[in-house]
Amino acid sequence: MLSASMKRAKTISITVAPELLAKAEETAAREERTVSELCAEALQRYVEDPEWEALLGRTRAAGKGLGVASEAEVERLSDEYRREKLIA
Questions:
Q1: Would you say residue 30 lies in a domain?
Q2: Is residue 5 part of a domain?
Q3: What is the structure's pLDDT at 1?
Q4: What mean pLDDT comes out for the span 44-71?
Q5: What's the structural domain count of the chain?
Q6: What is the pLDDT of residues 1-50, one digit of tens each?
Q7: Quick one: which H or E segment has residue 73?
Q8: What is the extent of the structural domain holding 22?
C-alpha cells in the first residue's frame, strides 16, 4: 500500500555518473528496493540532517576564506584538479 506522501510524489530526472548509477542499482537490488526509493531516501536524509547543514556552513565559510565565490567555482576547481591528476 502506498503511503500518503508517495501518493503525492512527483517524478524528477537527475543526471549521475555511470559508475554511481551502477552502485545505486547494485545497492537497490541487494536491499530489494528500487533505485527511486534509494534516491528518495538519500535525498530525504540529505535535506533533514542538521549535521550536514553545520558541515555546509563550515565548508562555505572556509571556501570564502580561500576566495571561492560559488559552488559553481568549486565544481570548476574540482574538474581542473581531476584533469591535472589524470595528466600527471
A1: yes
A2: no
A3: 46
A4: 87
A5: 1
A6: 455 666 788 999 999 999 999 999 999 999 999 999 999 999 998 888 88
A7: helix 71-87
A8: 16-87
Three-state SS for 42? helix
pTM (2 decimals)?
0.52
**Residue 68 belongs to some domain of the structure:** yes
Mind giving me the DSSP string for 11-77? -------HHHHHHHHHHHHHTT--HHHHHHHHHHHHHH-HHHHHHHHHHHHHHHHTT---HHHHHHH
- How distant, in Å, are the alpha carbons of 17, 35, 41, 52, 53 from that of 48? 24, 20, 11, 8, 9
pLDDT of 82 over the 70 cut? yes
Buried b (16+ CB within 10 A) or exposed e, 36-52: eebebeeeeeeeeeeee
Is residue 20 situated within a structural domain?
yes
